[in-house]
Automatic annotation (TrEMBL):
<feature type="binding site">
    <location>
        <begin position="248"/>
        <end position="251"/>
    </location>
    <ligand>
        <name>GTP</name>
    </ligand>
</feature>
<keyword id="KW-0694">RNA-binding</keyword>
<feature type="domain" description="SRP54-type proteins GTP-binding">
    <location>
        <begin position="101"/>
        <end position="296"/>
    </location>
</feature>
<protein>
    <recommendedName>
        <fullName>Signal recognition particle protein</fullName>
        <ecNumber>3.6.5.4</ecNumber>
    </recommendedName>
</protein>
<comment type="subunit">
    <text>Part of the signal recognition particle protein translocation system, which is composed of SRP and FtsY.</text>
</comment>
<dbReference type="GO" id="GO:0005525">
    <property type="term" value="F:GTP binding"/>
</dbReference>
<feature type="binding site">
    <location>
        <begin position="190"/>
        <end position="194"/>
    </location>
    <ligand>
        <name>GTP</name>
    </ligand>
</feature>
<dbReference type="GO" id="GO:0008312">
    <property type="term" value="F:7S RNA binding"/>
</dbReference>
<feature type="domain" description="Signal recognition particle SRP54 helical bundle">
    <location>
        <begin position="2"/>
        <end position="87"/>
    </location>
</feature>
<keyword id="KW-0687">Ribonucleoprotein</keyword>
<keyword id="KW-0963">Cytoplasm</keyword>
<comment type="similarity">
    <text>Belongs to the GTP-binding SRP family. SRP54 subfamily.</text>
</comment>
<dbReference type="GO" id="GO:0006614">
    <property type="term" value="P:SRP-dependent cotranslational protein targeting to membrane"/>
</dbReference>
<feature type="domain" description="AAA+ ATPase">
    <location>
        <begin position="100"/>
        <end position="247"/>
    </location>
</feature>
<keyword id="KW-0547">Nucleotide-binding</keyword>
<dbReference type="GO" id="GO:0003924">
    <property type="term" value="F:GTPase activity"/>
</dbReference>
<comment type="function">
    <text>Involved in targeting and insertion of nascent membrane proteins into the cytoplasmic membrane. Binds to the hydrophobic signal sequence of the ribosome-nascent chain (RNC) as it emerges from the ribosomes. The SRP-RNC complex is then targeted to the cytoplasmic membrane where it interacts with the SRP receptor FtsY.</text>
</comment>
Amino acid sequence: MAFEGLANRLQNVFGKLKGKGKVSEEDVGEAMREVRLALLEADVNFKVVKEFIAKVKEQAVGQDVLKSFTPGMVVIDIVNKELTNLMGGTQSKLAKSNRPPTVIMMVGLQGAGKTTTTGKLAKLLQKQNHRPLLVAGDIYRPAAIKQLEVLGEQIKVPVFSMGDKTSPVEIARSGMQHAKDNGHDYVIIDTAGRLHIDESLMDELKQIREVVKPDEVLLVVDAMTGQDAVNVAESFHQQMELTGVVLTKLDGDTRGGAALSVKAVTGCPIKFAAMGEKIDALEPFHPDRMASRILG
Ligand code: GDP
């Protein structure tokens, strides 16, 4: 389960606090020390942890809280609210262009789950009665085009491809035209992922962006890589002005560091979370629900 380690630790800390009729400033201090450790062990960015603890403490040690009828519960509420804020506060929705098609560019490093997520997103949009078109722009990874075509077939969403001999910029341009000609209201462009961020990858992505003028540039990152995922997000955001992040493999991420740090570090909201390999394992990311899940 996602966040298992962190959830267990925090539920343990707050279980003790909840049971107390009276809560002293020392009790809160002790609980916050444990929360701090739990967050660091969950691989949350150090600076993010520091600011988080300071914010909670500032609100929790006031006399109003400690003298309240259920002080333990009030402290937990404060932590819940701040965890929600940390992950972006409210749900950040997918953009919708008033001049369809809405264009979504998927970017990320190889292996993060970009191609799978592209298919999942198409399925999600289709369920909402949209008519998405998938564009196969990853011409470098062997079998990436085939993989997208198989996914498209599975969910009955058309895939526009021009093989691997045409430049991705040209594929994107032609894909856009195809979408307009065929009445698609969403275009999702799968782009090349490399093993590392390099200049040629970024240049190509920027060229595609120039041509398709996307409403969304979504970065797909593997949550299991923790702070590496956050660093990747930061680099991509600096170069590509991302509009959102998709966290994948949350089903295998027992720590949760990426989910808790990425918004705070990059300023870029998490828009979706993927929790499994199956085609319907993609959900809009709700910071409040995620916080409640962590606190149990
Ligand atoms: P790409 O190179 O970024 O396009 O990555 P792929 O879409 O090919 O995915 C790489 C691997 O990660 C595949 O085996 C996927 O099935 C797997 N994968 C993708 N998303 C998830 C997820 O949310 N959970 C799990 N457990 N596996 C995932």
